[in-house]
Amino acid sequence: MVRFIVHPVNSSWRCIIKTATSENIGRLPGPIILLALALLIVLIAGNGPAVSHADGTGTAVLLNIKGPIGPAVSDYVIRGIKKAEEDHASIIILQMDTPGGFDHSMRDIIKNILSSSIPVVSYVAPGGSRAASAGTYILYASHIAAMAPTTNLGAATPIQVGGLPGMPEEDPSPQEKENDTEKPLPADTLERKMVNDAAAYIKALAYRHGRNAEWAEQAVREAVSLTAKEALEINVIDLVAASHADLLLQLDGREVVMETGRVVTLAVTGLVIEPFEPDWRTKILTVITDPNVAYILMLLGIYGLIYELANPGFILPGIVGTICLLLALYTFQILPINYAGLALIILGITFLIAEAFVPSFGALGIGGIVAFVVGSVILMDEEGMRISLYLIGSTALVSAGFLLLLMSRIFTMRRKKVVTGAEEMIGITGEALEDFTEEGRVWVHGESWQAQSSAPVKKGQKIKVTAKEGLLLKIKIIQEDAS
């Protein structure tokens, strides 16, 4: 009789078949022997060593990162990885050309790469591309790191953004000086914490995939960079490929270890590369997180609310302004803005508005334009996230034109003769209705007025109003030229 003893050994199941004698097998019915062999094959195949093979008949999902890494890119990559897992793709190719980006967006991408059930191949391409700053971390986190010729990576030092100027600097402690005597210390404690955290993070990623951890730390602390050839020579990347076809050719047969410990042998010859295109949600998020668009939204929001407050009841400017301002605030919380720049912009706009209500002969207006321009320039100062100088210049010119128009109108209004009220009577000419010495009646502005004069007045004589006190006009005689 055949006995099956099934027990776990090293997290896998093995089946041991023990028989009394070889004669026992011969006595068993044929179907039972076949059933036993089939069961043995199933147990070994399903619970053998943790090694699987990427099926070369599948697909390779291509995700394309081009430009700064922000919330929109993070959302796009995360959904792309999920889509690849749902479609049971063989590999994911993450093609990059990026100057860097935000720390939280980068970490979200890395978390999903590490937890992916499908091997992720980061590929810096095409030629002339780079994986700087956040791109270097993503390259280190990927199961396979590849670069095209004439590309580069590195310069992974974190930069503090959105901080307030004038923050107090602290000297490094004696223990920090002693532990790091050979490496230059950052200027303040906050920056040291950021650099040390980033260095530990990228070193952990390097150890995870057996890559050069020493250079990774240098990229963070000293902002060094490498070409594709140099990176391959010192084990920063796994391969250099000139094209997608070359990449698949070199990937075939490589083994990668997934986060769960499962070993995957890549069989990628003949894979069909399917690009995963951004959908409308990603495109909208990409648009509103563009620094120039966020800048315009902020201005539209402020001016819309100002117009609504100055003209209550229009409603539409208030609604549009509120929506634009909320979108701008949402964008600013995830963009590297300088709060001093934002404060200068608000101050500049406030000065321009004050010029309209409290004329200062241009002092407030000019100060507002200067504050507005300076604030716009320093609002975002990270590479790839700067506001266009053309946009700043055009906006400043429009504001200056508005100021000049406002000042010219005020100047014209000051010079214009008053046409209503008591002031309108001053300077008007009329005619005496009777002879009088001190007070009498005069005809002014089509009406009969009681008038007072310091000199005798004769009937029909031309007079001019010099002042008005209630219903009494003070007049003087107009001397007529002798004919």
Keywords:
483 residues; alpha/beta; 2-enoyl-CoA Hydratase, Chain A, domain 1; 6-stranded parallel β-sheet; 5-stranded mixed β-barrel; 16 helices; 45% helix; 19% strand; rod-shaped; disordered N terminus
Describe this structure in words.
This protein has 483 residues and is an alpha/beta fold. It has four domains: 3-49, no CATH class; 53-165 and 187-281, 2-enoyl-CoA Hydratase, Chain A, domain 1; 284-415, no CATH class; 422-477, Nucleic acid-binding proteins (OB fold (Dihydrolipoamide Acetyltransferase, E2P)). The chain contains 16 helices and 19 strands. It has helices spanning 22-27, 30-47, 71-86, 103-114, 134-141, 174-179, 189-209, 213-221, 228-233, 244-251, 280-288, 291-310, 316-332, 339-357, 363-379, 389-415, and strands at residues 3-9, 12-18, 51-53, 59-66, 91-97, 120-124, 130-132, 144-147, 152-154, 225-227, 239-240, 255-257, 263-265, 272-275, 429-432, 439-444, 447-452, 462-469, 472-477. A six-stranded parallel sheet has the order 11-8-6-5-4-14. Strand 18 (462-469) and strand 19 form a beta hairpin. Helix 3 packs parallel to helix 4 (103-114), helix 14 runs antiparallel to helix 15 and helix 15 runs antiparallel to helix 16 (389-415). The longest helix is centred in the C-terminal third of the chain and has 27 residues, at 389-415. The protein is rod-shaped.
The H-level CATH homologous superfamily of the largest domain, spelled out, is 2-enoyl-CoA Hydratase, Chain A, domain 1
The N- and C-terminal alpha carbons lie at a distance of 153 Å
What's the pLDDT, averaged over the residues? 79
The radius of gyration is 40 Å
Give the low-confidence spans.
1-28, 42-56, 161-182
The shape is rod-shaped
**CATH topology call of the largest domain:** 2-enoyl-CoA Hydratase, Chain A, domain 1
Q: Give the domain tally.
A: 4
Oligomer: single chain
- In total, the number of strands is 19
Question: What percent of the residues sit in helical stretches (DSSP H or I)?
Answer: 40-55%
| Widest beta sheet: strand line-up | 11-8-6-5-4-14
